[in-house]
Amino acid sequence: MAIKPGWQGRFYEDFEIDDVYQHPLGRTVTEADNTWFSLLTMNTNQAHFNHEVGAASEFGRQLVVSTLTIAIAVGQSVIDTTQNAFANLGLDEVRLSAPVYAGDTLWSESLVLEKRDSKSRPQAGIVAVKTRALNQHGHEVLSFVRTFYVHKRGSDRARSLFPTAMEPLARRGTAEAS
């Protein structure tokens, strides 16, 4: 039986300037997500968790807290950008260009802006990407530039830590694959 590794993410060498990664997982934001995130982060602006305050605002309803929108977009990008990163170095040029509401579905994509070898860490490089989030209608709701350290392929710290199984994986009811 052949073991096929799952997606291991990009290493420094895999990034090419001007490549765009459309991150595969969309995320619908719920009212519970917004309330819990607001409470967890101690955001006391009632526009995020009080229906009456939201309804009386210029938006006519509760807004999703902007830092939740940022967190979702960063999270969506990890699979394509920072699966092999070990440190974020900066989050710059953050633009919140349209409101997000409970029920909106967010999608994100990232453009590789620059990359360079690290002077202090020879087994790593520094990459900058511009990420933006779109709602279900294709309207941009957020953009930012994120800079991060990422391992080079073959780096000691980039090796898989997947444990060796005590018993091989087998088909149901058989000791080995047929």
Automatic annotation (TrEMBL):
CDD domains membership: FkbR2
Pfam families, per the entry: MC_hydratase (PF19315)
Molecular-function GO term, any one: lyase activity
Protein name: MaoC family dehydratase
Taxonomic placement: Bacteria, Bacillati, Actinomycetota, Actinomycetes, Jiangellales
